[in-house]
Amino acid sequence: MATEESTVEKVEAGAAHEESLAPTETETAHSGPDRIAAPAAMRLAAGQLAEMLNCAPGSVSALKAAGDGWLADVEVVELERVPDTASVMASYRVRLDEQGHLMEYARMRRYGRGQIDR
Fold first, then answer.
1. b/e per residue 82-108 (b: at least 16 CB within 10 A)
2. Contacts for 77-86 with beta carbons within 8 Å, 24 or more apart?
3. Residue 110: beta bridge partners?
4. Which of 5, 22, 23, 78 could form a disulfide with 40 if both were Cys (CB 3.0 to 4.6 A apart)?
5. Is the peptide bond before 83 cis (omega within 30 degrees of 0)?
6. Which helix (H) or strand (E) holds 12?
7. Phi then psi for 70, rounded to 5 degrees?
8. Rounded to an integer, what distance in angstroms lies between the CA atom of residue 20 and that of residue 89?
9. Coil, strand or helix at 10
10. pLDDT at residue number 45
11. Distance between CA 104 and CA 94 in Å, rounded?
12. Between residues 115 and 68, which one has the greater pLDDT?
């Protein structure tokens, strides 16, 4: 019985988390019927990717409106190391639909946290 209760609690907590990620009516953009605004798209891209990968997102480095939603580049820490500059980061391309639901993601590159683009 205890495992059934804890499973129910986890499911309810997951549903509550998804609701907290959902954009509010004031965050919807005016350009389309139900398209969410850019700030909400950034939060949803980072949050949903973090759930999928079970890791904390570092930042959203790019966001672009696509015809059917949004494209975002989200940076995440894939391997934490000491010192921080030795950690392995990854950049993921995330596609959201107009309502902000994650449709697909793909890792674009991996790099050291201390690495500078040239």
1. eeeeebebbbbbbbbebebebeebeee
2. 77/113, 78/110, 84/113, 85/112, 85/113, 85/114, 86/112, 86/113, 86/114
3. 90
4. 23
5. yes
6. helix 2-21
7. -135, 150
8. 27
9. helix
10. 96
11. 6
12. 68
Tokens of 4: 């059934």
Per-residue pLDDT tens digits for 66-98: 988 999 999 999 888 998 888 999 999 999 999
Closest CA to 74 of 114, 44, 101: 44
Which residue is it, tokens 């949903």? 48
Question: How long, in residues, is the chain?
Answer: 118
Per-position DSSP letters for 32-99, written without gaps between them: SSSPBPHHHHHHHHHHHHHHHHTS-EEEEEEEEEETTEEEEEEEEEEE--SSGGG-EEEEEEEEEETT
Between vectors from CA 70 to CA 21 and to CA 100, what angle results, nearest 5°?
Answer: 25
